[in-house]
Amino acid sequence: MEASLFFSETYETARARFLEAATAAGGRLASHENPLARGPKGLPLHLDTAWFGPDDAETVLLNTCGTHGTEGFAGSAAQLAWMMTCGPRDLPPRTAALLVHAVNPFGFAWGLRGTENNVDLNRNFLDHNAPHPDNPLYDELHKFLCPKRLDEMSMSKMLGAGARFVEKHGQWALEDAISRGQYTHPDGYHYGGLEPEWSNVVLRRIVETELATARRIAFIDWHSGPAGDGELIYLCFSNPEGPDFARAAHWWGENALDPATVNAMWGSKRPSRRGIMFWGLEEQLAAHARLTGAVIEFRSARHKPSPAKTIRASLLERWLRFEGGLDAPEAKGFLEEIRDDYAPRRKSWHDNVIRNALACYRETISGMSEWTQERARAAD
Ligand SMILES: [Zn+2]
Questions:
Q1: Neighbours of ion ligand 1 (CB under 5 A)
Q2: Partner of 45 for a Cys bridge, out of 105, 177, 185, 246, CB 3.0 to 4.6 A?
Q3: Span from the CA of 226 to the centroid of ligand 1 (angstroms)
Q4: Please, what sign has the CA dihedral across residues 86, 93, 298, 109?
Q5: Is residue 328 part of a domain?
Q6: CA-CA distances (angstroms) from residue 12 to 19, 57, 201?
Q7: Residue 183: phi, psi to the nearest 5?
Q8: What is the structure's pLDDT at 379?
Q9: Is 375 inside a domain boundary?
């Protein structure tokens, strides 16, 4: 089947195809409706799961997509391709797969990255009873990163302030302050929220019930965004000195996980992070299971020649949410621009995403098989 055919035009279609393919492949389905939000035209929003393999499997692939809403188009296509090219039937004995479709269905349906509360879900998985991490440099940036209008004058004012900030703190500090996560400005960038989001609560509940007897979790969280054409960036958040990082490197290659490779593929030194889902789930599972895996990015955006272009998709999303509204006359065009960054319609991108995703599934599942056998030998 041609790669492009796995890609859906809307969240609604992607969801219907996920459910259909999972049913055809013998998956056990569950759906969770988000009671707090709706999609375009009042569309109900669901996080769906499909389980393949024995219920009591101790080695399980946990594969999520749409954590960052609209980035789900790539992950959803990858999941569909895996289910339709007999992935579930090829699972080794005593292993299972739990596919999670649209962790953040609101963002997926509207073509945005954040949740219904403008929360970056990948900054939301931390202990909300403890004081939230601070990000003092973000406070300095917020006021000029949130223009009321996106005309040339506002943009050049913003870029001027950005340049002054870089002079004072350096380029990396700018990127880090914007994207590491902040817990002070609900209408700002990469806001982590002050309580667990609906998606966070539901995903944790799924992990608690579905993975209760699992001992070994292989984790793939599909994302997209950095400039490129469907190549994979492996963001492994395990302790670099620990066994899970070593295992992931064994599956996907030392080089793929090497920080130098990752930074080069990312386009700059990666920012620091707080509250990411990977750590949240790793911690939740720690009492009975090890988690080995990564956030895996499909490179997707076009190369950006200027700082204004680099930040544009984030600016547009914020403007649509807080200034102009999703029904503004500009909305359609702006959403198209965002879409082109995270889920372009280029054939080469479709081809590369599907080819690279299927290769990654194969490597992961072969790694899981080895991991199960290792444990069986150790138990003999
Ligand atoms: Zn992402």
A1: 68, 71, 223
A2: 105
A3: 9
A4: positive
A5: yes
A6: 11, 31, 22
A7: -125, 25
A8: 67
A9: yes
**Structure-block tokens of residue 103:** 């962790």
Q: Is residue 54 part of a domain?
A: yes
In this prediction, residues 308-321 reach a mean pLDDT of 91
- Structure tokens belonging to residue 171: 């380029």
Number of domains in the chain: 1
pLDDT in tens, 116-135: 999 999 999 999 999 999 99
Residue 60 Cα to ligand 1 midpoint, Å, equals 23
Cα 153 to ligand 1 centre (Å): 30
CA dist., res. 110 & res. 40, Å (int): 7
Evaluate whether residue 48 is within a structural domain: yes
Over the stretch 85-111, which tens digit does the pLDDT of each residue have?
978 988 999 999 999 999 999 999 999
Do the beta carbons of residue 109 and residue 40 sit within 8 Å? Answer: yes
Q: What's the CA gap between 198 and 325, in Å, rounded?
A: 22
CATH number at residue 102: 3.40.630
User: Which domain range does residue 227 map to?
Assistant: 3-117+198-379
Identify residue 289 by its one-letter amino acid code: A
Helix (H) or strand (E) holding 321: helix 312-322
